[in-house]
Specification:
Blueprint lengths: L16 E8 L2 E7 L19 H16 L5 E9 L8 E9 L4 E8 L2 E10 L4
Antiparallel strand pairs: 1-2, 2-4, 3-6, 4-5, 5-6
Amino acid sequence: MTASWIVPVSDGLLLPDLLDVKEGSGFVELTLMISPELPCFAGHFDGFPLVPGVVQVGWVVTLATRFLSINSQVKFIEKLKFTHPIQPNQQIHLVIKRADNGQAIDFTYKNKDRPCAQGRVVFVDEE
């Protein structure tokens, strides 16, 4: 079963601005600027705009594809936790690491030292 709700960039998912990228063996650390012009803020929510969780996960999958050469479909998502909203004009730190011999990625979003979201995306085994 795949997560068809994760929208690839080519289908209109717009990414935040990348301010900094640090790549290593099996991981990438990104500094993102959350532009208030991102379309994900439409309807989320009047007077308290925030990046929806589904968009955050979509960004992770898209960025893992780009920087970690993940070329498999999403099988499922686990350990997903949203602890603090991501809002416009914030600078966010995102770490994505390969896990389970490359069959999964772990991710963490932080605003300064405050955790915003974390989870694991497991991919379809391509054997």
